[in-house]
Amino acid sequence: MYLNEEKNELGDQAFQVVLDYVKKNKDLGIEIGEVITAVGNTTDAQAFLQSGECNSISTKYVAC
Q1: Does residue 17 carry a pLDDT above 60?
Q2: Which of 6, 9, 25, 54 is deepest in the core (most CB within 10 A)?
């Protein structure tokens, strides 16, 4: 799961570069499956992580 702040284009680009690098370099031993993207706006990140929203997402995909 990839969480990013709305309008953080540099963060999106950096994540894509890393994702492409890992996928092209199988010898790293890292396998990336489906990537779920969530975008936040001006919501306080810590409050989101502690909220029920994050818990419902993490139950299905990852631990927050």
Answers
A1: yes
A2: 54
